[in-house]
Design a protein that fits this description.
252 residues; 2 domains; Fumarate Reductase Iron-sulfur Protein, Chain B, domain 2; two-stranded antiparallel ribbon; alpha+beta
């Protein structure tokens, strides 16, 4: 029979972006070690709803399969919690000790303003993508099927690895400068490596870097914290590719 766990939770509460937030303490008992972190928060919210003494805690979630990147929480000083290569929704309570105090916060970055409690607005990422993260494809008439375009295996693998970025924002939350370079570089790299992305290649990197700066993200100083906390293990090598693409866009 599994041993149930008890926790002390220190959770950030904030009504909206204009309100002054604060930490509030909660106790949650009899949690299965096989419960996910979000399931534990669900149980806490059921408790709050039943008591009718305060509103449930707002937090972002969607697929709960480690794919969408919505479950962005800062847990005990780490983006997505203590496990490497793991999103919050895939984090299980067996990763914590019985009786442990768990501090839960939203992403802390000016370009990610708090909406409510643990939910932040990451639409700045969307605007970066809109500024250049697309390809021009003629879909009228005799369109060439993408699968018929020959691509070297190593390039296809590199592009796929870059494309695994889920846009959760952990790289920004982990960076002392609140830089979005890992996110932007992964999106630029995956398209620059493929023939379908060559048409907008120069314009893409200029527009996306400009938009990143306009949104208020900080500069990259190569501390490597973004790669360390990325749940998909995106390499900082892609930042080098972004820098190369940026220089090429000016000299050629």
């Amino acid at each position: 029979m599994e041993k149930l766990l008890n926790f002390k939770l220190k959770i950030w509460r904030q009504k909206n972006n204009l309100d002054k937030g604060y930490f509030k303490n909660y106790n949650i008992n009899n949690i299965s070690p096989n419960s996910s972190f979000l399931e534990m928060l669900d149980l806490l919210n059921e408790k709050l709803l039943y008591s009718k003494q305060e509103l449930p805690i707002s937090f972002d979630h969607d697929c709960r399969e480690g794919i969408c990147g919505m479950c962005s929480l800062y847990i005990n000083g780490r983006a997505h919690g203590p496990d490497n290569l793991t999103t919050t929704c895939q984090l299980h309570m067996r990763s914590f000790s019985d009786g442990e105090t768990i501090c839960i916060e939203p992403w802390r970055a000016k370009p990610f303003p708090i909406i409510k409690d643990l939910v932040v607005d990451r639409s700045s990422f969307d605007r970066i993508i809109i500024s250049g993260g697309y390809i021009s494809v003629d879909t009228f008439g005799s369109t060439i099927d993408g699968n018929t375009i020959l691509i070297p295996r190593d390039k296809a693998s590199e592009a796929f690895d870059a494309a695994t970025c889920i846009g959760c924002g952990a790289c920004v939350a982990a960076c002392k400068n609140r830089s979005a370079m890992l996110f932007v570089s992964s999106k630029i790299s995956q398209l620059s490596m493929l023939p379908q992305g060559k048409i907008e290649r120069k314009k893409r990197v200029l527009n996306m870097v400009q938009k990143m700066d306009e949104e208020g993200f900080g500069s990259c100083t190569n501390t490597g914290s973004c790669e360390l906390e990325c749940p998909k293990g995106i390499s900082t090598d892609y930042i080098s590719i972004l820098n190369k693409e940026y220089i090429i866009s000016f000299i050629s």
